Amino acid sequence: MKKLLDLLTEEMQQAFEAAGYDKNLGKVGISNRPDLCEYQCNGAMAGAKQYKKAPIMIANEVAEKLSGTTVFSEVDAVAPGFLNLKVSESFLCDYMRRMSEEEKFGLEAPKKPKTIVIDYGGPNVAKPLHVGHLRSAVIGESIKRMSRYAGHKVIGDVHLGDWGLQMGLIISELQVRKPELPYFDDSYTGEYPVEAPFTLSELEEIYPTASGKSKVDEEFKAKALQATADLQKGKPGYRAIWKHIMELSIADLKKNYEKLKVDFDLWYGESDSQKYIPDMVEKMKKDGFAYISNGALIVDVATEEDKKEIPPCIILKSDGAAMYDTTDLATILQRTIDFAPDSIIYVVDKRQELHFEQVFRCARKTGQVAENTELKFLGFGTMNGKDGKPFKTRDGGVMRLSSLISQITDQMYEKISGNEALSQEEAKETAQVVALAALKYGDLSNQASKDYIFDIDKFISFEGDTGPYILYTIVRIKSILNKYREQGKEISMESLSAAQNASEKALVMELCQFNSMMESACEELAPHKVCAYIYDLANAFNRFYHETKILSEEDEAKRAGWIALLNLTRDILECCIDLLGFSAPERM
Question: Which of 52, 131, 215, 523 is deepest in the core (most CB within 10 A)?
Answer without folding.
Answer: 131
